[in-house]
Inverse folding.
C-alpha cells in the first residue's frame, strides 16, 4: 500500500498545480479588476450609465465639471465649458473612449475589488477626481476654435499638468443632439482629436529634421543656401512656399524653407531620420493616465530618395498627433527631455500619474535643445512677431501648413512653448483645413496662451 | 440628505449582508468537513503482526494489502537474499487473511505447503518466503505492539448539514429578494429536504458512520442548483432530479464495489460497457455545440461520455492481488486508446484530454512504470500534432488562448466576458440573478465559474474549487487506509479526474488554459455530468474503510466467525 501511496505523488502535484493556478487567477483578478470591470461595454455600468452615484469631476481650481444628483449626471452650468470639456470629461454613455468618465468610471462609481460593482449605493464610497485642466482656458480654446475642426493641447512642461485639451467638433453632454449620427456638423465628434487623431505635421516636423541634423552633422548651423523656391532633391523637385534667397540654418527654419530641410533629410538618410523621429515619440503609442493615444508614424522604409526628402518637411506619409507635437516641443523647452503630460491631479489612488505614463527618454541633447529653442525664439521675434502671440509671454514657436491633397485646404499647425519660468507652457494647435499655420493656428494659440497665463498666474497670486 | 430608507433599500441591504455571510458559512462547512475527515481516520497501527521465526523480530502489518519482499518499497521488508524483491502479498478480506505469491523465485509456503494462488492464513500459521519464516500473530498477543484505539474526533454530521441548510436558505432568501419572486425558493426547499432524507437513509439504513464527503458534494450541488434556479427554473429542477439520480448511482456504486472479487469478475463486461457508451454517442448521437456527444431520448438529452468516465475508472483500477507486480497494462491501454479515439472522433476534445490524464494516473499508479507513461505522452503529442496537420481548423478553435483580449469579439468573447464580469462581482458578488454573464451562451455550464464569481463572488467560487482539490488531498490521505489497492487507485483517479476537469473548466474560462467546454464538477448545469460526478464520488467514499466497516461488523456478529476486525468503529 505504501507503493500505491508513493505512486499517487504525481496526482498530488497536479492538485498543487491546480491550487497554484487558482492563486495565479486571484492575483491576476486583484491586479486587473479595476481595468477589466471598467471596460466600456460592461453592462453593469452601461445599462444605467453607471454614473448615477458617481463622484465629481473637478477642474484644477475645484470647479465642478460633472457631478451626480438624484441618480442623474449633471455637468457644469456653462454650456461652453461643457462643450469644451466634453472630450476630457466624457458624457453619460461611453461614447468618448479616452474620456475620464469612460476610463475611470468604476473608480468614480466607487469600485474596489472587495465589493465589486454589486454593493448597494448607500454603502458605496464614490470617489471624486480632480483634473489638471482649467475650465476657463478650455472655454477660451473652444471659443477660439469656433466652428472649425481642430484641437488644442497646452501643458506645463515642468510639472506635466495639462492645462487645456480641447477638440472640435464637440457637443453638449447635458443635451446630446439627436442628429449626432447623421449631421455632418458632428462628424467625428466622439473623437478627442488631441490624442486620438493624427495628421501630416508639415513644417512643424522641420524641428525633428533640424534636431537630427544638429545631433549628426558637425557645423550644420553654419551651412548657407540659396533658395530659389525650388530645388531637385533625390531626382525630383522640392517646392518651397516662396523663394527665401540666401539663408543660413536659423533663417531656413524661420522662413520654413522646404528645400533646405529636404536636402538635410536626404543627406541624413533613412536610418538617422527614423532614429531621431522615434526618439521624438514617433512609432510608439504614448500612454498617460490610462489614456492610450494614437501612434504617430514616421516610416520611410519604402520611400524613394525624393520621398525621403519630403518626409523631412513633414509630408510624404508622416502623421503626428497634437499631443505628441506638444510633448516634443516640451522636450525642446525642457533641455531635451520632456516631462510627460498628465490629466489627473488627484483622486484616483493606484494611478500614479508619473509611473503610468510611458515615460519618454531623452529626445535630444541639451545643446541641441538650446539651439532649437533659440531658433524658435528668433523665428517668433523676427518673423511671426512677438505680438502675434503675447505681449507678456516669451513664446518660441514653429508653424506648419500641411498639404492634405488636391481640393482641400492645408491643415494649419503651430507648436511651441513659453520661456517664462513662472508660466512654463508647451502647446500645439491644429486647425483642420485652416489653410495657413500663421493665419489660422497662431491666433488660436495666442488666445489660449493669454487665458492660460491668467489662469496660471492667478493660481500663483 | 437621503430620506428614510425605502423598502427597496432595506431589501438591497439584506441581500448584500447575506452575500457577505454566505461564503463565511461555506468556509465553516468546508473546514469542519475536512477537519472531521482528517481527525476521524484510522491511526496507522498494526492489524496483526508477523514474527520472524529465526530472530523473533516482529513486523507490524499496517494495511489491508501488504507487499512482502526485499525491495525498499515493500510494506513488509525482509532483509534476506533468498526473498524476492516482490515476493508475496498479504491481504485482508472480510473472510480473513490471505497470502498470494506474486511471482517469487522461491515460492510461498504456508505451514510447509507450497501455495497456489490465494491461500487463507490464520493466527499461528507460518508463512515461509525463501529462508525466512513468519508467524502470524494477533497484535494483542505481541507485547508492545498493541496501542489502544484512539478516540476519533468526529464533528457531528447533523451539525455540518445544518450549516449547509443555513447556507442554502440564505441563497434562497437572497434569490427571492433579488428576483422579487419565489421561483428559486422551491428548488432550495426541495434540495434541503432531499439532503436530510439522504442523510437519514445513509445513517439509518446503510449505517454509514460519516457524512462529510456527501456534505461537501451537497454544498457544491446546492450551489449549482441555486445558480440554475436564479436564471432558469426548469434547469434547477433538472439538476435536482440529477442529484437524486446521482445519489442512487452513488449508493449502487458503493454497494457494487464493496467486494473486490466481484469487481474483478465484472471488469471485462464493464470495459465493453464503457466502450459501448462512448460508441453509442457516435451511432445515435446528435451534434450539440460542435461536439457529437449527446443522445436525445424523447425529452431527455443524455451525455453517455459522462457515465463512461465511471466505467472507465472502474476498468482501470480493477486489478487485484497483483498490484505489486508489473502486470501488463495491455488490456487497459487498448480500452483507453479506443475511448480517447472515439471522443476525438466526436470532437469532444475536452473529455478526450480528461480520459487521457485519467489514463496516465491509473497507468502510473498500477504499474509505477515511468516508461509506459512517457510513451503514452509521446504518442499523445505525436497524435495531436498529426491531428493538427490533417485538420488545422482544430487549432483555430483554441487560437485565442493566452490573448483573449485581442479576440474579444469572436474567439475570446466568452473568456473576456467572464473576466470582466468576474471583476465586476468582487469578493461577494453582485447577487444571484443580478449578473450579466447569464445572458451568454453556455454561461450555466462552461462559464459557470465566471457566473459564480459575478453573482455570488469570487470567494465562494474559489471555495468550490478548493473543495474539489480537497477531494483529491483526501483521496490521497486514505490510500494506505483503504481495503485494497483497487480502492486507493480508483479514489485517486476519480479525484484526479475531478480536479483535472475542474482545472480545464476554471482555467479555460479565465484564459489560463484553452477553453474546452467541459463542465465544472457538481456545479455546472447538466444532468449527466451531475449524476456522473456523484458516481465518481463513490470511488472516493469507498476508499475509506469505514464505509464498509459497520456492515461487516454486523456480518461478523451474525456469523460468529473468528476474524481480526479489531479496528471497527463502534458507534
Amino acid at each position: 500500500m505504501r507503493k500505491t501511496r508513493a505512486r499517487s505523488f504525481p496526482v498530488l502535484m497536479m492538485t498543487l498545480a491546480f491550487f497554484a493556478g487558482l492563486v495565479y487567477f486571484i492575483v491576476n483578478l486583484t491586479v486587473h479588476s479595476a481595468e477589466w470591470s471598467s471596460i466600456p461595454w460592461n453592462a453593469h455600468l452601461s445599462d444605467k450609465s453607471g454614473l448615477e452615484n458617481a463622484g465629481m469631476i473637478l477642474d484644477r481650481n475645484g470647479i465642478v465639471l460633472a457631478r451626480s444628483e438624484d441618480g442623474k449626471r449633471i455637468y457644469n452650468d456653462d454650456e461652453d465649458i461643457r462643450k469644451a470639456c466634453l472630450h476630457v470629461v466624457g458624457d453619460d454613455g461611453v461614447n468618448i473612449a479616452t474620456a475620464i468618465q469612460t476610463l475611470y468610471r468604476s473608480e468614480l462609481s466607487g469600485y474596489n475589488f472587495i465589493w465589486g460593482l454589486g454593493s448597494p449605493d448607500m454603502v458605496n464610497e464614490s470617489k471624486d477626481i480632480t483634473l489638471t485642466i482649467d475650465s476657463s482656458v478650455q472655454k477660451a480654446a473652444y471659443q477660439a476654435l469656433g466652428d472649425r475642426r481642430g484641437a488644442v493641447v497646452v501643458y506645463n512642461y515642468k510639472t506635466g499638468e495639462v492645462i487645456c485639451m480641447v477638440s472640435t467638433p464637440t457637443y453638449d453632454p447635458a443635451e446630446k443632439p439627436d442628429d449626432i449620427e447623421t449631421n455632418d456638423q458632428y462628424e467625428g465628434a466622439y473623437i478627442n482629436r488631441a490624442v486620438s487623431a493624427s495628421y501630416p505635421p508639415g513644417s512643424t516636423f522641420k524641428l525633428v529634421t533640424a534636431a537630427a541634423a544638429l545631433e549628426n552633422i558637425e557645423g550644420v548651423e553654419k551651412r548657407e543656401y540659396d533658395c530659389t523656391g525650388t530645388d531637385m532633391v533625390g531626382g525630383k523637385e522640392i517646392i518651397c512656399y516662396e523663394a527665401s534667397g540666401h539663408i543660413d540654418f536659423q533663417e531656413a527654419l524661420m522662413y520654413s524653407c522646404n528645400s533646405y530641410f529636404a536636402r538635410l533629410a536626404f543627406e541624413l538618410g533613412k536610418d538617422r531620420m527614423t532614429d531621431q523621429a522615434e526618439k521624438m515619440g514617433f512609432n510608439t503609442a504614448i500612454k498617460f493616465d490610462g489614456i492610450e493615444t494614437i501612434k504617430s508614424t514616421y516610416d520611410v522604409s519604402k520611400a524613394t530618395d525624393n520621398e525621403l526628402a519630403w518626409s523631412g518637411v513633414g509630408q510624404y506619409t508622416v502623421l503626428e498627433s497634437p499631443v505628441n507635437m506638444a510633448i516634443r516641443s516640451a522636450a525642446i523647452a525642457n533641455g531635451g527631455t520632456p516631462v510627460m503630460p498628465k490629466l489627473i491631479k488627484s483622486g484616483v489612488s493606484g494611478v500614479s500619474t508619473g509611473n503610468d505614463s510611458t515615460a519618454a527618454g531623452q529626445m535630444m541633447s541639451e545643446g541641441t535643445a538650446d539651439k532649437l529653442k533659440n531658433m524658435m525664439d528668433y523665428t517668433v521675434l523676427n518673423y511671426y512677431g512677438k505680438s502675434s502671440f503675447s505681449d507678456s509671454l516669451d513664446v518660441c514657436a514653429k508653424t506648419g501648413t500641411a498639404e492634405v491633397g488636391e481640393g482641400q485646404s492645408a491643415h494649419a499647425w503651430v507648436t511651441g512653448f513659453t520661456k517664462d519660468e513662472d508660466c512654463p507652457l508647451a502647446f500645439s494647435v491644429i486647425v483642420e483645413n485652416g489653410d495657413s499655420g500663421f493665419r489660422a493656428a497662431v491666433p488660436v494659440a495666442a488666445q489660449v496662451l493669454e487665458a492660460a497665463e491668467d489662469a496660471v498666474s492667478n493660481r500663483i497670486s | 440628505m437621503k430620506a428614510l430608507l425605502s423598502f427597496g433599500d432595506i431589501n438591497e441591504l439584506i441581500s448584500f449582508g447575506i452575500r457577505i455571510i454566505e461564503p463565511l458559512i461555506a468556509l465553516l462547512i468546508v473546514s469542519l468537513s475536512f477537519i472531521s475527515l482528517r481527525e476521524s481516520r484510522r491511526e496507522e497501527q498494526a492489524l496483526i503482526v508477523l514474527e520472524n521465526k529465526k530472530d523473533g523480530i516482529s513486523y507490524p502489518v499496517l494495511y489491508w494489502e501488504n507487499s512482502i519482499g526485499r525491495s525498499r518499497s515493500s510494506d513488509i521488508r525482509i532483509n534476506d537474499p533468498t526473498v524476492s524483491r516482490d515476493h508475496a502479498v498479504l491481504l485482508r478480506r472480510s473472510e480473513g487473511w490471505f497470502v498470494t505469491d506474486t511471482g517469487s523465485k522461491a515460492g510461498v509456503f504456508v505451514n510447509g505447503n507450497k501455495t497456489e494462488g490465494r491461500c487463507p492464513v490464520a493466527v499461528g500459521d507460518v508463512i515461509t518466503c525463501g529462508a525466512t519464516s513468519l508467524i502470524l500473530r494477533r497484535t494483542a498477543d505481541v507485547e508492545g505492539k498493541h496501542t489502544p484505539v484512539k478516540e476519533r474526533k468526529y464533528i457531528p454530521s447533523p451539525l455540518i448539514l445544518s450549516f449547509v441548510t443555513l447556507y442554502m436558505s440564505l441563497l434562497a432568501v437572497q434569490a427571492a429578494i433579488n428576483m422579487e419572486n419565489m421561483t428559486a425558493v422551491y428548488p432550495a426547499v426541495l434540495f434541503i429536504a432531499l439532503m436530510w432524507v439522504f442523510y437519514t437513509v445513509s445513517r439509518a439504513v446503510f449505517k454509514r458512520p460519516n457524512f462529510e464527503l456527501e456534505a461537501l458534494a451537497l454544498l457544491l450541488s446546492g450551489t449549482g442548483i441555486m445558480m440554475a434556479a436564479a436564471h432558469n427554473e426548469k434547469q434547477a429542477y433538472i439538476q435536482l432530479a440529477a442529484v437524486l439520480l446521482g445519489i442512487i448511482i452513488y449508493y449502487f456504486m458503493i454497494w457494487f464495489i464493496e467486494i473486490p472479487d466481484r469487481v474483478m469478475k465484472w471488469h471485462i463486461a464493464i470495459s465493453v460497457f464503457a466502450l459501448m457508451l462512448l460508441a453509442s454517442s457516435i451511432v445515435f448521437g446528435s451534434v450539440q455545440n460542435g461536439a457529437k456527444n449527446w443522445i436525445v431520448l424523447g425529452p431527455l438529452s443524455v451525455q453517455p461520455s459522462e457515465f463512461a468516465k465511471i466505467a472507465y475508472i472502474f476498468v482501470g483500477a480493477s486489478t487485484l492481488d497483483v498490484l505489486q507486480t508489473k502486470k501488463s497494462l495491455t488490456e487497459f491501454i487498448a480500452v483507453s486508446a479506443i475511448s480517447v479515439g472515439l471522443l476525438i472522433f466526436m470532437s469532444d476534445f475536452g473529455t478526450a484530454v480528461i480520459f487521457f490524464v485519467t489514463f496516465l494516473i491509473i497507468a502510473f499508479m498500477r504499474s509505477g512504470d515511468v516508461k509506459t507513461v512517457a510513451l503514452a505522452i509521446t504518442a499523445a503529442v505525436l497524435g495531436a500534432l498529426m491531428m493538427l496537420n490533417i485538420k488545422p481548423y482544430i487549432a483555430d478553435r483554441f487560437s485565442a488562448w493566452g490573448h483573449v483580449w485581442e479576440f474579444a469579439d469572436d474567439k475570446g468573447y466568452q473568456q473576456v466576458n467572464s473576466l470582466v464580469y468576474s471583476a465586476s462581482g468582487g469578493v461577494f458578488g453582485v447577487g444571484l440573478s443580478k449578473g450579466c454573464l447569464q445572458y451568454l451562451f453556455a454561461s450555466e455550464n462552461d462559464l459557470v465559474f465566471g457566473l459564480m464569481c459575478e453573482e455570488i463572488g469570487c470567494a465562494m467560487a474559489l471555495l468550490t474549487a478548493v473543495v474539489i482539490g480537497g477531494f483529491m488531498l483526501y483521496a490521497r490521505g486514505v490510500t494506505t487506509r483503504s481495503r485494497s489497492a483497487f480502492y486507493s487507485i480508483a479514489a485517486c483517479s476519480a479525484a484526479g479526474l475531478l480536479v483535472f476537469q475542474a482545472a480545464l473548466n476554471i482555467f479555460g474560462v479565465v484564459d489560463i488554459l484553452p477553453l474546452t467546454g467541459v463542465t465544472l464538477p457538481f456545479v455546472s448545469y447538466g444532468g449527466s455530468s451531475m449524476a456522473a460526478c456523484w458516481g465518481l464520488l463513490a470511488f472516493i467514499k469507498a476508499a475509506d474503510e469505514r464505509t464498509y466497516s459497520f456492515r461487516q461488523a454486523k456480518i461478523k456478529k451474525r456469523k460468529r466467525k473468528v476474524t481480526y476486525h479489531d479496528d471497527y468503529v463502534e458507534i
Q: What stands out?
A: The radius of gyration of chain A is 25 Å.
